[in-house]
Amino acid sequence: MDGWNWFCWNRGTASDVGFEEPEPFYLPDPIPEWPQGEGFAEGKICIGELEVVEITQFQSIWSCFSPKEKCRGATFYKPLEVPDGFYCLGHYCQPNNQPLRGFVLVAREMANIPSSTGMPALRKPLDYTLVWSSGSWTEDDNEECCYLWLPSPPDGYRALGCVVSKGPKKPSLEAVRCVRCDLTDACESTDMIADMKSMFPDFPCKIWKVRPCHRGMWGKGVSVGTFTCSTNSSIEDEMSISCLKNFDSSLHAMPNLQQVHALIKHYGPTVFFHPKEIYLPSSVSWFFENGVTLHKRGVKMGEVILPEGSNLPAGGENDGNYWIDLPDDNRNEYVKQGNIDSSELYVHVKPALGGTFTDIAMWVFCPFNGPATIKIGVTNISMSKIGRHVGDWEHFTLRVSNFTGELWSIYFSQHSGGVWVDACGLEYITGNKAVVYSSKSGHASFPHPGNYLQGSEKLGIGVRNDAARSEFLVDSSISYQIVAAEYLGDAITEPCWLQYMREWGPTITYNSKSELDRILGFLPVNLRFTVENIFDSLPVELYGEEGPTGPKEKNNWEGDERW
Fold first, then answer.
1. What distance in Å separates the CA atoms of residue 371 and residue 386, rounded to the nearest whole number?
2. What is the tens place of the pLDDT at every residue in 408-421?
3. For the chain, give me the number of helices (H) and strands (E)?
4. What is the rounded distance in angstroms from the CA atom of residue 227 to the CA atom of residue 166?
5. 288 to each of 23, 105, 325, 388, how far by Cα in Å?
6. Judging by beta carbons within 10 Å of its beta carbon (0-12, 13-18, 19+), is residue 7 exposed, middle or buried?
7. Are 442 and 450 in contact, with CB atoms under 8 Å apart?
């Protein structure tokens, strides 16, 4: 093993090889005492026959890293301070290049809820199956090696995570519990934690995070926080663990309206627009009050939209028969530039991961989306048409743990995609309030300032997204309006404009190819084909001036964000 130039250790010997384990991450400020409610931030959540607790304190079991790249590799942990009567469902793993930040759920049976099948909800495994080892069974030093075990569940039960040991001795059957099949849900692999092949070429293995398959506002899948591993190229062939399923339809752990307001006031990010931004946000009512019109196919004249949008067609789907347009008088350019003083964030609150988390989606409206800037190497070319359209809806989403009310991560929407960033990777402006950077002209959201490229970062070719601080800002902890929270019933009245499912701008067809050909004509012949392929891979909305649909028509309104 020494010949591989890799090290592994336990907690007692990490310092001996000059490596310090990741330090735990804590939010900048303590979590406040939230307003009183029923089940939010109470530490425990009932999901039917089971009650679960989120454990975020861990003890390391085994780690590996390269002396040349100590940030590579991974560490395996077991949960600490498991409450009496609760049982571990699996161990935790994370990369070494980030602060210690994660959770696993532990569970116990609810004594006052009878079993629906006559069988207990939790049972010990019958045995363990070895799924991976960092060394050979015949090595003299195998007591220092890592062994990953999959619990062998009784008939009618499922394993929810792997168990890790240092050395080849099987874990105790008391170390973990399996869950009755009908209380579980399907899960799938997501981000890869570590590729062990690069560290142990004779013993290849990939470690993956897992997540419920059924997510979104109506999904019942509950993430356990465990991991899975694959020893061949297809993770699907080895997905032998499940997640939990929430059978409590009351969603009692979701925050009430007073608690939602407290969460927004405590965590609401400050949104910074670029110092050279021309097309700033506004409120929807300001947009309507300044002469924008509703158009109907086949009717020449547009209808002035009332301030609250009460004369907009409600419901249905985007059938192309209606659209909104800017005023055709001298207010046109004025409206395009928005009115940041009137701007507010439009908030949609919804359950996530089976009601164990709350997603607070914050929507930003801009009257106009500006044209793109194309970057090719060191050359930047401003487009006149590509990327521009009337009406621009962008958003970011705060994910909050319903066990504690702790901010867990933020999703940054970026045109047709986006990225989840853990709380430890955010930039904070004051207390636990993060910063969101809105890119110049296109208003995509980013966690840090910089020049982000939509295309090929490696080749330096694509559409620029420039993000920086400026005096143009909106504090979402103050300037917001909750427009939807379906789980709260009649507590929130949705505004009329939210029911408008058609386009917030006209469709204008133009020959985008002429602008691209102009760019390609300046390039060396050997580079044109590569650049053209990159342009072809960019989102199609860049190449037509078409207003977007509103928030409720987006896939993530009911579904999960891309993560």
1. 5
2. 999 999 987 899 99
3. 5, 40
4. 17
5. 50, 48, 10, 20
6. buried
7. no
CA atoms within 13 A on the CB side of 442: 29
Residues 145 and 8 sit within 8 Å (Cβ to Cβ): yes
pLDDT given at position 226: 97
Residue 540 CB neighbour total at 10 angstroms: 10
pLDDT in tens, 73-88: 899 999 999 999 999 9
Cβ atoms of 133 and 113 within 8 Å: the answer is no
- Residue with token string 């070429």: 201
Residue 181 predicted with pLDDT over 90: yes
Cα–Cα distance for residue pair 503/545, rounded to 1 Å: 11
128 contacts 111 by C-beta, under 8 angstroms = no
Q: Which of 187, 88, 73 is nearest to 134 (CA)?
A: 73
| pLDDT score for 3 | 35
Q: Most distant CA pair in the chain: distance in Å?
A: 85
What residue segments make up the domains of the chain, in order of their start?
2-20+47-245, 257-557
**Cα Rg, the chain, nearest whole Å:** 26
Q: How many angstroms separate the Cα of 443 from the Cα of each of 110, 216, 365, 371?
A: 48, 24, 9, 11
Q: How far from the centroid of its chain's Cα atoms is residue 349's Cα?
A: 15
Question: For the purposes of burial, counting CB atoms within 10 Å of the CB of 241, is it exposed (0-12), middle (13-18) or buried (19 or more)?
Answer: buried
Chain-wide mean pLDDT for the chain?
88
Show the tokens assigned to 417. 């995609």
- The residues pairing with 107 across neighbouring beta strands, listed in sequence order, are 52, 87
